[in-house]
């Protein structure tokens, strides 16, 4: 999942500090097609994406998620999940607690794990009607291989890989499943929760926020505007500081000296996956960090629990939990 940007900016995996650097999917084949081969039978229309257009099957009953978190929207929209990519978390079938009840007895096949590529033979063995990877970094070669198995909806071309907002993701998957109306309702419900929290916290409006993470010993990074964790805060009224303007992906390494750029109104450290202690140890021995006004004034916070993961996962199912838990903590920093 790494992508190198201009200069020293290096895009890390979406969950830096949870599973280390998540590797990019390896190329699965050398053929190249711009469009799916239309499925037999009736079509429910088409969806355009990074690699062309996919003709949708009518009422797909067996769905494989090859994206980072597409399984949540699939389940929220009533789809039956027969395969999923298990990024991290050690939860059954790669499905997090907020989505587990919606499995309804299904036992999806794990078709890949963090640090590995999609196992095409396992995808094929699930005999899917539809393959979904909207929040992904699928390559042309992988898409060609997947679309030979079943109609495949890849990441949209208008966003960076792993950069689709949850609203767009839910809309696209709703269309793919023939559940446009339900998708609209779900989005409206979560949007209202955001609006309510924003209204209840006027102090958030216009405040600069920076979200960072530990990259390695003595190494830090910050998330860019397209990262879901950053979008979580901007949807609540926060704004991005100028330092994020140069980040074209969703994560960029910064040097220890560049930590001075982190002197914003609120500094949030993401430390999921048990990385909190390592992060604290690194920050404690970094003098330049201790001199930041945001640190001395107590406006820096480390998020490392289930709420942090819900924010990071950032789906129509996980966001309501994050909205209950995180804003009160942030509000306490601005008192």
Automatic annotation (TrEMBL):
InterPro entries: ABC_transptr_periplasmic_BD (IPR002491), Bact_iron-sidero_bind (IPR051313). One of its GO terms (biological process) is iron coordination entity transport. Its main location: other. Keywords: Signal, Transport. This is Iron siderophore-binding protein. Residues 62-334 form the Fe/B12 periplasmic-binding domain. The keyword Nucleus does not apply. Pfam families: Peripla_BP_2 (PF01497). The keyword Transport applies. Belongs to the bacterial solute-binding protein 8 family. One of its GO terms (cellular component) is outer membrane-bounded periplasmic space. It is found in: Cell envelope. PANTHER family: FERRIC ENTEROBACTIN-BINDING PERIPLASMIC PROTEIN FEPB, IRON III DICITRATE-BINDING PERIPLASMIC PROTEIN.
